[in-house]
Amino acid sequence: MFGIKSTRIVANHSVAPGILVIDRGRIQTIFPYHFEGLERVEDVGEAWVIPGLVDPHVHINEPGNTEWEGIASATKAAAAGGVTTLVDMPLNSIPVTTSVEALQQKVKAAQGQAMVDLSFWGGVVPGEVKNLDDLSAQGVPGFKTFMIDSGLPEFAASDEKTLRESMPIIAKNGLKLLAHAELDLGHKLAGSPAVYENFLNSRPQEWEYEAISLLIKLVRETRCPVHIVHLAAASCLEMLAEARAEGLPITVETCPHYLVFSSEQIAAGQTQFKCCPPIRDAANREALWQGLRDGIIDMVTTDHSPCVPALKQKGGGDFGQAWGGIASLGLALPLMWTEAQKRGFEMTDIVKWMASDTARLASLDNLKGALQPGLLADVVVFDGDQEWTIGSESLYMRHPFTPFEGMKVKGRVLATYLSGEKVYSLQDGFPGAPNGKVRLIAPAK
């Protein structure tokens, strides 16, 4: 048994001084700040003590594309960024996670490599709906689908027919559908492909709006819970608010890159900024922040989607041809803290967006996402005042080619604990062997 002492412990939606008590991998209680009965106490001063973050939207790419990322590098990056749980998307790995056999390959690959805990989403693609019951029985927390070309032939887009077939099965199993919500309305990239504005115009907000409109209609018909991943179009917020007011089971995420960057600042050839849906203008960015303030957007995830630098056309390239995905694993906490403070948000908001609500999405809130007695002692010590510049030397992802490089941020992870064991410290790096576990859920009866 030991304690972590701080003047700022975030628990029960509030901040207070105290000593967080950990025993046998779980949180026991929070003692008053001046309690002296514990034999071992780590005093972290005024550093924040918060729950380990849960990132439910990452592409780890193992097996099959491990040269893009991989479990070892991804989970190190997560631990260094205060993330104690990753939920891996079903695509970019080979095979894609649309069968029990593919899921078992991912579970096997995680053994002895993971610095943090892992879970895995299943996938919905045309022709594979028959596998949804079996994957549900294996404990996936839900299923991801693309409503538009994913860029990978092995993970084809789901049309309305496929969604109608799959959503009742997913609902029956008590799970949720995660949707990449864009519909191809026929716009093409016109003009120089090196100019970001031309790429942006080729994927307008209407693509997201029409996709989400269709999803709302299908949720209304099937009552299948749907989660909108990486919302970029603020024009969808009013429609989503109305659907929620109607009582439809819809949740929404956005990502740091949509909350930090704006299209106006992306220069020609800077393909490290390419993602789909695209980063939009500054007014849209501020409207997304308002969506968080209003509770229409529930959470913030990274959508860490790396690749080998050549696929991003590093050094200046073609926005039409470059791989679409932002590498950001390990950076979300300081990025969000830096930007959220400017807009009047508190650390309790960060914890809600990136720990408690994301744990709930992954059906892991009985284990993670809060500093509550009985939950696993996934804990982060975060110096909210330390200023630093993001550089490749401080990143643990396999390819530190990221649009966030060179940014000055405020806040740094000092230590990360997984089930009570220190798995990362800024001073000592990674003190122990990988001991992360696969945390699939108990299927509904």
UniProtKB/TrEMBL annotation:
One of its GO terms (cellular component) is cytoplasm. Pathway: Nitrogen metabolism; (S)-allantoin degradation; allantoate from (S)-allantoin: step 1/1. GO terms for molecular function: allantoinase activity; cobalt ion binding; zinc ion binding. The keyword Amino-acid biosynthesis does not apply. Belongs to the metallo-dependent hydrolases superfamily. DHOase family. Class I DHOase subfamily. Belongs to the metallo-dependent hydrolases superfamily. Allantoinase family. Homotetramer. This is allantoinase. It comes from Microvenator marinus. The lineage of its organism: Bacteria, Deltaproteobacteria, Bradymonadales, Microvenatoraceae, Microvenator.
